[in-house]
Design brief:
With about 220 residues, the protein is mostly helical. The protein is about 70% helix and about 5% strand. The protein has 2 domains: about 80 residues, Arc Repressor Mutant, subunit A; about 100 residues, no CATH class. Helix 1 crosses helix 3 and helix 5 packs antiparallel against helix 6. The protein is rod-shaped, with a radius of gyration of 29 Å. This is DNA-binding transcriptional regulator, PadR family. GO terms for molecular function: DNA binding.
């Protein structure tokens, strides 16, 4: 069980979820997972015994819903919630703080991965310029005279430099767009810890593939 739930707290929270609307057992588990942003994924062995206990206490009732069973809070259950509203409010605050901390960690991980990717691209641009300068044979005729520095060193042709700058600029724009899109999605209400971790893994994998392409 998640450590956020002290003794009896999960039972109280299940009752609060049913006060929102009747639910099947699986819907209760989904609602819990959404509330915790995916950080808590309850099992059937955890949830159903507690629902049965609530039924024994007269706080919920089971109603047939086709081939499934729906759990419905009773008047006694609502009265019980009202008596313990202070505990429920404190529990909601703890859950909110926990989910916000996790979201901050995930966003920080995505930002770090994007920063690393941009640094790799910048380094690749420098390496490409150096390679183009050093790999041109000294005796080969240059169809377009290379410019010279004040000390006589040759530089890449202007069209080569322009092509490289344009390509790197396009990559930089693509990275910026992706960062903005990922940031917006990660801050969305539908994100879960599990899905955010998958995004982070994909960003890390993409950065690794780019490093392999650029030979770093």
């Amino acid at each position: 069980m998640s450590p956020v739930f002290a003794h009896g707290a999960l039972r109280l929270y299940l009752l609060a979820l049913l006060a929102e609307s009747p639910k099947h057992g699986y819907e209760v588990m989904q609602a819990l997972e959404r509330r915790f942003g995916g950080t808590y994924q309850p099992s059937a062995g955890t949830i159903y015994p507690r629902l049965s206990r609530l039924e024994e206490e007269g706080l919920v009732e089971k109603h047939a819903d086709g081939r499934r069973t729906q759990y419905v809070i009773t008047d006694a259950g609502r009265a019980h919630l009202a008596e313990r509203q202070g505990e429920l409010d404190a529990l909601e605050t703890e859950i909110g703080d926990s989910v916000r901390r996790l979201a901050d960690e995930v966003r920080g991980g995505v930002r770090d991965a994007m920063r690393t990717l941009r640094a790799d691209l910048a380094a690749a641009e420098r390496d490409a310029r150096s390679t183009r300068s050093s790999s041109r044979p000294a005796s080969a005729p240059d169809p377009e005279p290379a410019s010279s520095t004040p000390h006589g060193r040759s530089e890449p042709r202007a069209d080569d430099r322009a092509d490289l700058r344009a390509a790197v600029h396009e990559v930089d724009l693509a990275v910026t767009r992706m960062r903005a899109e990922v940031r917006t999605l990660v801050r969305g209400a539908s994100v879960t810890a599990a899905s955010a971790r998958e995004v982070l893994a994909e960003v890390d994998a993409a950065a690794a593939r780019i490093r392999a392409i650029l030979g770093r």
